[in-house]
Design brief:
alpha+beta, Alpha-Beta Plaits, 4-stranded antiparallel beta sheet, 3 helices, Thiamine_BP, Thiamine-binding protein domain-containing protein, MTH1187/YkoF-like, UPF0045_domain
């Protein structure tokens, strides 16, 4: 499965705290997991089995919650049992079609 998620402070206890600091801690958790992942301006994508992906999302959310009394979490999942490597394959398929147009 591939899961796109976004976790960030909804508010912080410290008005000087940067949202990027909290999000950085969440990304550290994702990268330390060893699961295939990528981060863009709006979401982090992670690929793996249900339990391992959601365990990472929970840990990343807890990391943000340490600096924020209220945390926002958005999740979107592509559940396709038996398929791996889809994090890159989906983009490659589109790029192949775009290249064929030229």
């Amino acid at each position: 499965m591939i899961v796109a998620f976004s976790v960030a402070p909804a508010v912080t206890d410290n008005p000087d705290a940067e949202m990027a600091d909290a999000v950085t801690e969440a990304i550290r958790v994702v990268r330390a997991s060893g699961l295939p992942n990528e981060t863009n301006a709006m979401f982090t994508l992670i690929e793996g089995e249900w339990d391992e992906v959601f365990a990472v999302i929970k840990e990343a959310t807890e990391a943000v919650s340490k600096v924020a009394p209220r945390t926002s979490l958005v999740i979107k999942a592509d559940i396709r049992p038996g398929h791996t490597g889809q994090l890159t394959r989906k983009v490659e398929a589109v790029e192949e079609r775009l290249a064929a147009d030229h």
